[in-house]
């Protein structure tokens, strides 16, 4: 009897602890998501209701050239950032891990500082550094290409340039994750392996890499989600141009909703992006887990 | 009396004591005017407030462009918008489609002491919907003009005896002047914001309109008929200026202005709103050359110039109509502003209100009076939801025209892409 009462009491306590979160989640996430789904089937403007149009918005999406351009650019951007940023962060973490004490702290601060900056500051810094007329990096570009390049106005340069800015900006956080992962690897393993005469390469390949894999998989997944959501940097640096070569899905959502007042269509685009992120990230995480188990 | 009732009563009493004796109208005003425009508008509002004890204008300045119009739409829909706001007439079609504007009736104009005949027809038309109902009262006409630096033209046929620009009557004349300026050491003989949306759009639209081309027809067709070829021609001209090294490469707005003010350009194609910059520099003795500004010459088949207007509009107040007394106060504010527009002209603009534009005071204002002739030949943006300030038409300028004139795409392909792009934005 007493046990049963205790259990129901337990449940009550648990419920009351969960409730605040559940309520807030329902209010600021579940409800808006449900509204977006509903809106995507209407021709609603940004404010106010609209008429039910069924699958029209989605049909229109499939025939919208800009949608495919944006999709392609999102994919291109993911290719340009996700694996490179993970590799760079791992390399930096390995290097920083070999430092000790204050030097390590200093190195960490240096790599982490960009992450603290707001996106507008980051883009402003890079826009100045890469400015076509006065940018301090233009002589460097000129050295390699023979002439200054307006990087955010050149269809071939714009996406890689935005990718470089993004990697510089967000890398510090990944370094931190990797460093935490590295610290979790027991040093005895390295000592034992060293006694057995393992080389540096073997230490990395047989101990560090497999034990770090869960962190690597996490970083890759987080990056994938983050980079699929690219918007701010493109909006601030290139506005989607030139020739739509940096037009991405979220920019499309923004323009449709706020500039053209097509709330329903914008909702449909954002929902497609949402589903895309969910599906791709679940797929990726599963594949990475399987890959991790094999090795 | 309970404690609760007591506090309530004292709160009410305090409120009543704080309120002025007479019924005073507070007019909430939103604008997007910054820089020199903003300073002049604030001065006008302050003067209005001091002259009208019964009406107080409470002004807020918001960010120009998409943020402003988004905010107006969302706030007006729920009745939390302003009582009066500035509005680009080129953006009127979107405002009409969104149903955020209220029509301005003949009685409203009476209250303000204004009449339709008092305004330049080009500007007034831009403030009306397709059926001819007035939704925004034009305050000014602002266009691009041709600024010139006389020092590069000295001794040539392009200056008259008084040192004023003359002799540019065709594209060939203008390009001859550009070549001459280049010879005389001008770094960029003609400057405009080649790397920005506004600068590129305005020059393109002027060149298109001077050939009689239409960007978007009333039926919603993009570059109908031979307008396509005319658009190609316009892009070709801008591309040529780039290839000859006559215009700056990828110049952002500020850089394009700096090229002219620092004396490195012989000409500038830019809005009248930069006139105060020039007069201020000249007054401070920092300019170092003689300058002037004239209406864009006839380079193509006819003399017209891209133009837009700042106007006043009254947004809807949610579902409720505006209190008639409040509306009267709003119209009083608008009427007063129009009649005092001479101070606004100081910012380079041409008053849309003819009694001011034709006054002796304005005639004495230079260079405004020189280029005021453009008011009758103003080419406003097409009447379309996707045209006007901060619209897809501007996006196309930065996305397609600007890179094309820098050689990343041929004029023909650029115009094709532009058509497809704009067509896809039309529902």
Topology record:
The complex is a heterodimer of chains A (295) and B (427).
Chain A: H1 2-39, H2 56-62, H3 65-98, H4 101-116, H5 119-129, H6 138-145, H7 158-183, H8 187-195, H9 200-228, H10 232-237, H11 249-259, H12 263-294
Helix pairs in contact in A: 3-7, 3-9, 4-7, 7-9, 9-12, 11-12
Chain B: H1 3-18, E1 25-31, H2 35-51, E2 55-61, H3 66-77, E3 84-88, H4 92-98, H5 106-112, H6 121-126, E4 137-138, E5 140-149, H7 171-183, E6 190-191, H8 197-210, H9 227-243, H10 253-261, E7 267-271, H11 275-283, E8 291-295, E9 305-308, E10 310-313, H12 324-339, H13 342-345, E11 350-351, H14 354-357, H15 360-363, H16 368-371, E12 378-380, H17 392-408, H18 411-425
Parallel strand pairs in B: 1-2, 1-3, 6-7, 9-12
Antiparallel strand pairs in B: 3-10, 4-10, 5-7, 5-8, 5-9, 5-11
Helix pairs in contact in B: 5-12, 8-9, 8-17, 9-17, 9-18, 17-18
What does this structure look like?
- The complex is a heterodimer of chains A (295) and B (427).
- Chain A contains 12 helices and no strands.
- Chain A has one domain: MetI-like fold (Orthogonal Bundle), CATH 1.10.3720.
- With 295 residues, chain A is an all-alpha fold.
- Chain B is α/β, with parallel strands linked by helices and 427 residues long.
- In chain B, helix 2 links the parallel strand 1 and strand 2.
- Chain B is globular.
- Chain B has 2 domains: 181 residues, D-Maltodextrin-Binding Protein, domain 2 (3-Layer(aba) Sandwich); 212 residues, Periplasmic binding protein-like II (D-Maltodextrin-Binding Protein, domain 2, 3-Layer(aba) Sandwich), CATH 3.40.190.10.
- In chain B, the strands form 2 sheets. In chain B, strands 5, 6, 7, 8, 9, 11 and 12 form a 7-stranded mixed β-sheet that branches. In chain B, strands 2-1-3-10-4 form a 5-stranded mixed β-sheet.
- Helices cover 45% and strands 13% of the residues of chain B.
- Chains A and B meet through helix 11 of A and helix 3, helix 4, helix 17 and helix 18 of B.
- Chain A: It is found in: Cell membrane.
- Chain A: This is Carbohydrate ABC transporter membrane protein 1, CUT1 family (TC 3.A.1.1.-).
- Chain A: It is a multi-pass membrane protein.
- Chain A: InterPro entries: MetI-like, MetI-like_sf, UgpAE/MalFG_permease.
- Chain A: It holds the Pfam family BPD_transp_1.
């Amino acid at each position: 009897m007493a046990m049963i009462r205790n259990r129901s009491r337990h449940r009550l306590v648990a419920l009351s602890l969960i409730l605040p979160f559940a309520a807030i989640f329902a209010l600021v996430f579940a409800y808006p998501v449900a509204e977006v789904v509903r809106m995507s089937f209407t021709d609603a403007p940004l404010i106010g209701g609209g008429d039910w149009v069924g699958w029209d918005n989605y049909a229109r999406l499939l025939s919208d050239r800009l949608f495919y351009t944006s999709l392609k650019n999102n994919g291109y951007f993911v290719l340009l950032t996700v694996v490179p940023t993970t590799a760079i962060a791992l390399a930096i973490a390995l290097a920083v891990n070999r430092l000790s004490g204050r030097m390590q702290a200093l190195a960490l601060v240096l790599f982490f500082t960009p992450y603290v900056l707001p996106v507008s500051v980051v883009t402003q810094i890079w826009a100045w550094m890469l400015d076509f007329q006065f940018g301090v990096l233009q002589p460097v570009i000129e050295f390699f290409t023979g002439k200054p390049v307006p990087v955010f106005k050149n269809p071939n340069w714009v996406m890689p340039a935005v990718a470089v800015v993004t990697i510089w900006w967000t890398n510090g956080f990944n370094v931190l994750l990797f460093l935490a992962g590295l610290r979790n690897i027991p040093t005895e393993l390295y000592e034992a392996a060293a006694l057995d005469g393992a080389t540096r390469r073997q230490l990395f390949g047989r101990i560090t890499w497999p034990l770090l894999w869960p962190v690597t998989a996490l970083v890759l997944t987080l990056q994938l989600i983050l980079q699929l959501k690219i918007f701010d940097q493109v909006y601030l640096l290139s506005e989607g141009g030139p020739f739509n070569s940096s037009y991405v899905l979220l920019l499309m959502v923004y323009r449709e909703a706020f500039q053209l007042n097509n709330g329903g269509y914008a909702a449909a685009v954002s929902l497609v992006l949402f589903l895309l992120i969910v599906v791709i990230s679940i797929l990726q995480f599963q594949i990475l887990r399987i890959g991790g188990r094999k090795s | 009396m309970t404690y609760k009732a007591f506090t309530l009563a004292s709160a009410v009493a305090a409120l009543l004591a704080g309120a002025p004796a007479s019924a005073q109208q507070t007019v909430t005003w939103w604008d997007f005017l910054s820089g020199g425009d903003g300073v002049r508008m604030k001065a006008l509002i302050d003067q209005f407030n001091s002259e009208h004890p019964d009406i107080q204008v409470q002004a807020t300045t918001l960010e120009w462009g998409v943020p402003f119009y988004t905010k107006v739409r969302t706030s007006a829909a729920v009745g939390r918008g302003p009582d009066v706001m500035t509005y680009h007439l080129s953006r009127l079609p979107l405002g009409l489609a969104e149903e955020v504007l209220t029509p301005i009736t003949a009685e409203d104009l009476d209250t303000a002491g204004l009449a339709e005949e008092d305004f330049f027809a080009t500007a007034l038309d831009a403030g009306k919907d397709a059926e001819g109902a007035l939704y925004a009262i034009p305050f000014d006409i602002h266009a691009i003009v041709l600024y010139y630096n006389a020092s590069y033209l000295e001794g040539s046929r392009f200056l008259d005896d008084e040192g004023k620009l003359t002799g540019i009557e065709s594209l060939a004349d203008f390009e001859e002047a550009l070549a001459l300026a280049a010879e005389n050491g001008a770094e960029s003989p003609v400057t405009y914001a080649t790397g920005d949306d506004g600068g590129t759009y305005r020059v393109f639209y002027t060149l298109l309109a001077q050939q009689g081309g239409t960007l978007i027809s009333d039926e919603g067709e993009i570059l109908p008929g031979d307008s396509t070829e005319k658009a190609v021609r316009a892009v070709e001209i801008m591309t040529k200026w780039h290839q000859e090294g006559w215009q700056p490469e990828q110049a952002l707005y500020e850089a394009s202005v700096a090229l002219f003010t620092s004396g490195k350009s012989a000409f500038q194609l830019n809005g009248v709103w930069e006139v105060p910059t020039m007069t201020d520099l000249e007054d401070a003795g920092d300019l170092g050359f003689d300058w002037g500004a004239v209406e864009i010459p006839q380079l193509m088949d006819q003399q017209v110039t891209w133009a837009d207007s700042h106007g006043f509009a009254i947004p809807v107040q949610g579902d409720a109509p505006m209190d008639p007394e409040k509306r009267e106060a709003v119209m009083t504010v608008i009427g007063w502003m129009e009649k005092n527009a001479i101070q606004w002209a100081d910012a380079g603009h041409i008053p849309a209100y003819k009694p001011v534009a034709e006054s002796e005071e304005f005639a004495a204002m230079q260079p405004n009076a020189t280029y005021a002739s453009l008011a009758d030949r103003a080419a406003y943006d097409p009447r379309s939801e996707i045209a006007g300030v901060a619209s897809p038409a501007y996006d196309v300028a930065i996305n397609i025209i600007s890179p094309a004139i820098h050689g990343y795409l041929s004029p023909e392909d650029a115009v094709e892409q532009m058509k497809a792009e704009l067509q896809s934005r039309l529902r």
